[in-house]
Amino acid sequence: MKKIPGARPPTPTELVRASDRISFLYVERGIVHRADSAITVTDSRGTIHVPSAQLACILFGPGCRVTHHAMMLLGDSGTTAVWVGENGVRFYAGGRGLARSTRLLEAQAKLVTNERNRLGVARAMYEMRFPDEDVSSLTMQQLRGREGARVRAIYRAESERTGVAWHRRDYRPDDFDASDEVNKALSAANSALYGVVHSMVVAVGCSPGLGFVHTGGDRAFVHDVADLYKAEITIPAAFDAVAEGVEDVPAYTRRVMRDRVYEQRLLERCIRDIRRLLLGDAEFGDIDDEWRDVLMLWDGAARVVAGGVNYSGSEVDFDNLPDEDPF
């Protein structure tokens, strides 16, 4: 057999864990290429090298040109490539993550398709955001009412803290510049947060579209998880950015967000929170299965058998099958 040219892609165990990576890199009006094991970004100011294996998510904005070799490296590194619009406020496409197991995806699907379990996860999400409230008996309608009141109070508190005037959330998807400065900052901060959370959701093998509170959109679960951190990260970051009085508020907000994501160890927290929500405390500590290259065959009920085995012949000992795929 002819040898396949090129370097062998690394296995997940050879890469930097998703929770230990740099959060995100936003690129616009530049050329993204590859030099050895680094991504290069070239624009009018010169060229920089970025270690792709340490990057969780790269956001490609308008004016970007990406080479085939760059995408090969990003794919091999498990770096989520996301194509976004001007100022990062539109999402167009994303890529494959690190996980090789469907353990979390199956747990997510099982929970979201059972009304009682789905409500339990929604309550758990609210408790993570507002731990001082007892929501164990609240309906979804009551949860939405509580959330709306708490978020409005957070906006007012941030306005008083920073001295930035606040009227209401006014995001216009078709006219970004029509909003006031604080609303533009909030949109920029949230778009960066969505990119980071999306990369973590994909990295652990979950479906971005199977949401518990949000539903119907292809990033419903991304919005669910991102909402866990807005009160702590994006809302304060947006008000702080506007309070600085800079000329380019969206760009400065993204830089503030990058620092806050690092300081708050958001990547690590995000993966931990997703696993706790979907697996519960009983299975929370066992993380190895998500990163193993294992392909099994369903055997009915909750049973599985090894793949890569011919089960049609009499030579197969069905009572002593291997636990894992031998190939």
From TrEMBL:
Molecular function, one GO term: hydrolase activity
Cofactor: Mg(2+); Mn(2+)
GO biological process, alphabetically ordered: defense response to virus; maintenance of CRISPR repeat elements
Domain of life (superkingdom): Bacteria
Record keywords, A-Z: Antiviral defense, DNA-binding, Endonuclease, Hydrolase, Magnesium, Manganese, Metal-binding, Nuclease
Residues given in the record as Mn(2+) binding sites: E147, H214, D227
Pfam families cross-referenced by the UniProt entry: Cas_Cas1
InterPro entries hit by this protein: Cas1 (IPR050646), Cas1_I-E (IPR033641), CRISPR-assoc_Cas1 (IPR002729), CRISPR-assoc_Cas1_C (IPR042206), CRISPR-assoc_Cas1_ECOLI (IPR019851), CRISPR-assoc_Cas1_N (IPR042211)
Annotated function: CRISPR (clustered regularly interspaced short palindromic repeat), is an adaptive immune system that provides protection against mobile genetic elements (viruses, transposable elements and conjugative plasmids). CRISPR clusters contain spacers, sequences complementary to antecedent mobile elements, and target invading nucleic acids. CRISPR clusters are transcribed and processed into CRISPR RNA (crRNA). Acts as a dsDNA endonuclease. Involved in the integration of spacer DNA into the CRISPR cassette.
Entry similarity comment: Belongs to the CRISPR-associated endonuclease Cas1 family.
HAMAP family assigned: Cas1 (MF_01470)
Oligomeric and partner information: Homodimer, forms a heterotetramer with a Cas2 homodimer.
Protein name: CRISPR-associated endonuclease Cas1
Source organism (scientific name): Nakamurella aerolata
